[in-house]
Amino acid sequence: MPVIFWLAPASAILALVFAYVFFKQMLGYDEGSAMMRKIALHVREGAAAYLRQQYKIVFLVFMAITVIFSFMAYGLGVQNPWVPFAFLTGGFFSALAGFIGMKTATYASARAAMAASVSLNEGLKVSFRSGAVMGLVVVGLGLLDISAWFIVLNLVYPAAESTHNLLIITTTMLTFGMGASTQALFARVGGGIFTKAADVGADLVGKIEAGIPEDDPRNPATIADNVGDNVGDVAGMGADLYESYCGSILATAALGAAAFLAQPAIAINVVMAPMLIAAVGIILSIIGIYLVKTDEGASQKKLLKALGLGVNFSAALIVVFSLAILYLLNIPNYIGIWGSILTGLLAGIAIGQSTEFFTASSYFPTRKIAEASTTGPATVIINGIGTGLISASIPLTIIAVAITMSYLFATGFSFHVSGLSYGLYGIGIAAVGMLSTLGITLATDAYGPIADNAGGNAEMSKLSPEVRRRTDALDALGNTTAATGKGFAIGSAALTALALLAAYIEEVKIMFVEFLNMPEFAINGKEGAVQAQHATFIDFIYHYEINLMNPKVIVGVFLGVMAVFLFSGMTMNAVGRAAQKMVDEVRRQFREIAGIMEGTAEPDYARCVAISTKAAQREMMLPSFVALLIPVVVGLIFGVAGVTGLLVGTITSGFALAIFMANAGGAWDNAKKYIEEGHLGGKGSENHKAAVVGDTVGDPFKDTSGPSLNILIKLMVMASVVTVGLAVAYSIL
Amino acid sequence: MPVIFWLAPASAILALVFAYVFFKQMLGYDEGSAMMRKIALHVREGAAAYLRQQYKIVFLVFMAITVIFSFMAYGLGVQNPWVPFAFLTGGFFSALAGFIGMKTATYASARAAMAASVSLNEGLKVSFRSGAVMGLVVVGLGLLDISAWFIVLNLVYPAAESTHNLLIITTTMLTFGMGASTQALFARVGGGIFTKAADVGADLVGKIEAGIPEDDPRNPATIADNVGDNVGDVAGMGADLYESYCGSILATAALGAAAFLAQPAIAINVVMAPMLIAAVGIILSIIGIYLVKTDEGASQKKLLKALGLGVNFSAALIVVFSLAILYLLNIPNYIGIWGSILTGLLAGIAIGQSTEFFTASSYFPTRKIAEASTTGPATVIINGIGTGLISASIPLTIIAVAITMSYLFATGFSFHVSGLSYGLYGIGIAAVGMLSTLGITLATDAYGPIADNAGGNAEMSKLSPEVRRRTDALDALGNTTAATGKGFAIGSAALTALALLAAYIEEVKIMFVEFLNMPEFAINGKEGAVQAQHATFIDFIYHYEINLMNPKVIVGVFLGVMAVFLFSGMTMNAVGRAAQKMVDEVRRQFREIAGIMEGTAEPDYARCVAISTKAAQREMMLPSFVALLIPVVVGLIFGVAGVTGLLVGTITSGFALAIFMANAGGAWDNAKKYIEEGHLGGKGSENHKAAVVGDTVGDPFKDTSGPSLNILIKLMVMASVVTVGLAVAYSIL
Description:
Two copies of one chain form a homodimer. Chain A is mainly alpha-helical. Chain A has one domain. Chain A is built from 20 helices and no strands. In chain A, α2 packs antiparallel against α3 (83-118) and α4 packs across α13. The radius of gyration of chain A is 25 Å and the shape is globular. The two termini of chain A are 44 Å apart.
């Protein structure tokens, strides 16, 4: 292993060390009054109980899949023997990242509330440093695991001996990504259903029917709502971005190996490049996190500037350092590849800006939605859906441009077929660039829910309204700085999914060659037809298997879109059903427990937590199985051609639907807040009620179905990569 | 021209003759009291005024496009000289079909109301025969125009001389389809915005705020609402299905010519087959229409049976007769092609059944949406969107199966590349089979709005409630029988779009060959690269231009999905904006015109009609231009590869979104009706109010954006076919 490689595991460990330091620092803060500690404990226990339940089920699912993978690897021989283990560790570390994030957040909420009662700055420090724990844990665990597998597999299949070995290493590591994605999907779907069932239930009965404010301790669903923030927004987001981070690095590495099959000396460097860019990104993130600090009594503007300074510092320096890394590694056309990285960063920023434009109440789209409330909830919904659909077209266009440019930069401005592999590598590394500073961008994203929870704690423990105002300000601040981070997350999802798709085709090539050397597989009689028509199997793959006029490919695209619609419909309905159960329960408690509204009796919080937990566990199964099974079933029926089409359909329509849902949900949320700020009649007006309907509809859009889709599109590709042997050897058609 | 060909124009003329007879018969009925005549006149004038306005604008658009096409044909030489004329006639006849349908409907409404006051059976006769006028006009004009162009072009490029000539004929005729689609898009988008602005506006203020019933003459928007039914549901639907009908025949004919380039004797028959199946379908439709009659005083069950008899008779016999035609024409593998037709019919029926299941209140999905009203409008919306998304997955799966089976039947159960063209022909003819009996299925579909309008007239002219009950029964009856017809329309849209896509690739091949023979076009230097790599240009196209790993193709798919989301968002927002204007106007009239609510003063109906007209004219432009320009722009930048990807993205995601919107809208509508029938608290309850919000959101879903998408997916392909020369000769990348 070249010496420079060790930068990757070293900086990963560094990230974990700093995460530990920040965690300890946070624990050193005062957790406040007995009441505050009690509420925090309630939330912490609820969240831990939920995650225990969820991990139990996910563990069983992982066991089942591992058994199948073991059978494929050792029984059928259609898989690498390391696959089952790689799959397991990916799942384990993804779960661990989510768990640590959740623990940190639940320890931090009361402390952040207490700190915010001292000053805004103190509140920022506690919540931001807690968010940084999550950011650094995600990147630290991610890069550490990638490095570890790279080292282990290199011992078994020495990359120095042949580039084919390197290709086996990188494609096996994709299985690790599939483990992470599978866990992330369960975390997002389950956590998303939990949090939105509680949120929608609490809002519908509490805010609309009983007329009590958000986070009021008289609302039986309020603890469940706060637990939901931790298991959905924090643990779910942690698992999600862990998956994105690893996925982008692994896919790019696999494409790097494929691009230089004939040149082993170059190949190893090209494979290491994404890991090393990520390593430098970690170091820059840590420095960036330390830059986020202000004087006592700083204005909000100054705070915003402080946060921006940290993020922008890291982003700017990664541009410089990635060029240095590419140069040092002797990457061919390193200026071009650097252009690809720049393209990715710019695309991420542009997507973030467009999200901001479509969802912030300072721009006209969200204002129009707010104004539609004067004609009732129906027009609020119509406008929100219309605006959401339109808003999706911008990131789709940006991604189209980004694909074109990052490809062209990498190939030296040519669409010639011979440059295909390297061009695809350019697309992959653009995603790596966006996510390389995830350590700090995730910190700015994750501290929002922490500040939000701190506000909840402040409300329930009846701290002065000033504290709530400060935590709200921190939350809002987070939303602004998080825009860029979210743009990176969304943009990288599309590019990573594409890079994974390209890696799938590479894996198909390996499989085809492998099976042809095994006389017991006749590839279903395809062999004869293939050899009659095509000079080589590679030619066959390009000419036939991924040809858009092949009806199997077209059928695949239809089924890919089908999978996306089915999956999002299922998750939407799951939230609907779970929320109705919550509403029934909250209504029952208001009716049956005397003295709740007067504050003389305590509601049964635990019961609401239990309802959300049970609903989330049950409802997350079916959509997740859909995601895992469809690629396998399509592969078994329609073969590689069907799967290729399937993935293209899923990636493109899934990406579009995810953005539509995220933006419509965000816009409804902010339209409601805009009215609550006193416009159009303000809180309690008919307009406000109409806007609350929009916000409620938007909840599962932006926090359940939308974010789950971002994982779905990658998981389906990885599931295809891992089960490619089945599609190649056993497909019916 | 073979003698058997003349069956096509002959049966087309027969259809028009019978349409004229039915029209005259309808005019012979009594138009009722002075009040009824006055209302009918109001609606008729409003609708005529709107169409005049619309056709004026569409005329200008057609002129502009014709100039561009003329320049392409005569200036650049990238187009056949007949293209501009074919384009114009397609638009003209599509508009004519819509106009005649609208005229018939507006003459029929008062007469149907009057007839319904005599008996249910009389009401059925008048409204069904009027619907039949529309059905027969659409198929008559469609097949007549196709035959006429086939005859004319055959004189210029004698098909008997070379199959290449036949290919030129069929691809030129596709331009005719583009004209029809362009007009249909304007009709659907404009009409859809008009009708939903009026409907939503009338409902929001009338039903919800003022608490007066539907179609109450005190509501200022009520005439506009009824005008809307005629220009949206009737004229829009007529233009829409005219486009579908012609599109399926033309696309299949083009593929037939391409499949047998080397065998002229076979080719001409394969090209004629779809026209002749359509011809027989017309004759069967006319017989079927005559079968729809019952005894005086028949029960509703018996009426339903009568309608079903006509539709099923035609559908069953077309199965038998199409086999005979294929046999007589000596079509290769005629049993297989017949299997493709059967596949199409079964797929259409299955899609109709799935629509029924997801949108009828007798099944649990719609019941669940109705029950969600107990927790308010937000859960109604969440459930409706969830169910709508899930419901889209069924037709997507059905279409995937239908593509596979109709392809395999045509090729004799092989996916071998050599069978590609004929397999695609099989997919096209499956769509022709579904639409061949459009004469009668459209009659059962179009008579619904006529019965609905009759009900409106009865309500406004204060006929006895019994009359309204009867027209409602007729309307409901129509909804039931129309399910199959709608299934055929939706299913055929997807299959036709695919067949058109295949025709696009054929056109690309012709263009490539053509430009290579013209030294002044270097095809942007592609030539060298191409020749270096590929044995033939055809090989180049298959290997590179439509290869899914070509980044230009992938970018195209992203942009195709983008176009769909942008278009539907724009149409949704257009309805939202127009409806808000209508609400403001109705509120203003209630406020300013004293005595409206007491019935002593007449509201200003004309003003509401004018508002809808103006809004529809303005709002229809931008989305329509998006549809027309995107394929051209993508072609000019990314070339054939980009366009191919674009079309695949548009077809698949557009189809999915169209069904989602249609089903969600239908389910909300019926959930509301279910509550109005007395369930869950009935009319006026909080549940009912929540369900009305769902219904209102569903209005633009099911009547504006959804149906427009069905046209969009075909129009974008046809626009690509017609401008293919630009993409081949002038693309930048």
